[in-house]
Design goal:
single chain, alpha+beta, 4-stranded antiparallel sheet, two-stranded parallel sheet, 2 helices, 6 strands
Amino acid sequence: MLVDAYYCIAYWRYLREFAIYYKRYTTLIYANDKHKIPIGELIATSTGVRNKLTLAPLDGEISACDHDFNKLSLTPSVSLFVDIPNNITESFYQGQVYVSYKDTVFQPSCGLRHATELHTNYEKQFEN
C-alpha cells in the first residue's frame, strides 16, 4: 500500500511539472462522473451498507426502498480546464468548470460518451 501511495504521489508531481514546463502547449483537464442522485422517491431508501439496529414494534415490519430502484437518477459529470500555474506550489484547482447531467438509465457512462463530452467542452473552451 505504501509503495502504491509513493508512486501515485510521484506521478502526480511529475504530471504537474510536465504541465508547467510545457504550459504553452498543454491543456490539463480533470474529468469525473459523480455519484448518482436519486430523484422521485418520497419514502425511506436503504443502501444496505450500514445495517444499524432499529427500534420497531414487535409485530411491526421494517421496510425501505432498495437504493438500486429509483424512479429516476441523474449523474453529474464535471470537467475542469485547469489554469496551469507558473510554480508547482500554486493551486492546480483553478480554471473553467463544466457540469452536465445525465439520466443514468438512458445515458449511461461509457468511453464514447466521455470522449463526446470532452470534445464538446473543448470546443466551448477554445471557440475563439
